[in-house]
Amino acid sequence: MKTFHCDNCDAQVFFENTFCGSCGWMLGYQPELQAINSYLPVEQEQEQEQPAQSAPASQRWRSVRKVNEGRVFRQCVNYWRENICNWMIDEQDPNELCASCRLTRVIPSLEDERNRVLWGRLETAKRRLLHSMWTLRLQPVPKVDDQETGLAFEFLQDMPHGERVLTGHADGVITINIAEADPAYRERAREQMAEPYRTLLGHFRHESGHYYFDRLVAGTGWLEPFRALFGDERQDYGESLQRHYDQGPPEQWNEQFVSSYASSHPWEDWAETWAHYLHMFDTLETAFACGMQLRPRKASEQSLEIARPPAETRSFDELASEWFALTYVLNSLNRSIGMPDSYPFTLSTPVLDKLRFVHDVVTQPAPAQ
Length: 369
Hints:
The chain is of the alpha+beta class. 36% of the residues lie in helices and 12% in strands. Helix 4 crosses helix 7, helix 7 packs across helix 8 and helix 7 packs across helix 9.
């Protein structure tokens, strides 16, 4: 993810911030600009000596600077009422919810205060996914606007004596068990399933892969090249997963797949590879934004200078080269403080070919059928 700065005082701020810790102005994210901007209540535009921290939340807002000159905004309802969002809405937009919150159609019961915390974490991870989708020019349409091709999220809770909620995707609906937003639960699941990497954002990226398979690959000229690399997705999905859970992954699975779960079915291979590509894309974007470089003392060691953001990099080989150098230093730093590897993966040649395919699907038009 890119770095953000308050457009009033230029202090560094973060994607989730609602106020600038330096100048005190209220902040809001504009997805169409992919920027964090500072805002002043329209009613106080003549009294700009003091920041607007105590202004009524339902007011109309105007940017402090001229990037949005003439435009008036409202806070998303989940911003001013629920305090779990920081996205802004143009005053001319009839929706009360922002472009991110409109995608969520079911939330957990807020009678349990703990669920509010978990819901907030889910929305934060979802917004980070959506930032990447906007950067890749893959903004999803809300399912409420397009039942056939739109996207929706449902955040559900296991109920006593009820059927367990399974995280997954079906027909444009991504379901997340809210327990995944609990770090203790997620760590237990990671240990039980022998997963080296399990994060809330990773779940969103994986499930979005299933959605974008339907949007970008199925029924297009990418389908036959997909089958050549990943296998035939028409094989029985239920049987494949049951076999995976009963027998485990094949021996030496890491020679062909990015994770053991990817070996269960071509759809899961695609979703795991898609998620991995987004991990690479977002981390490299952050490294570029921070101006990260590696200039080792010995010429034989890995160096790194990211010349352009990944969204402007057409060559997958360039991305992969930058990625190997970056993960080398990330893992080395983690080991120095006694932590597990930040990046616990080995990318074989077949896996790199699959990642290159995802890159091509994202950056190039589909081949003719």
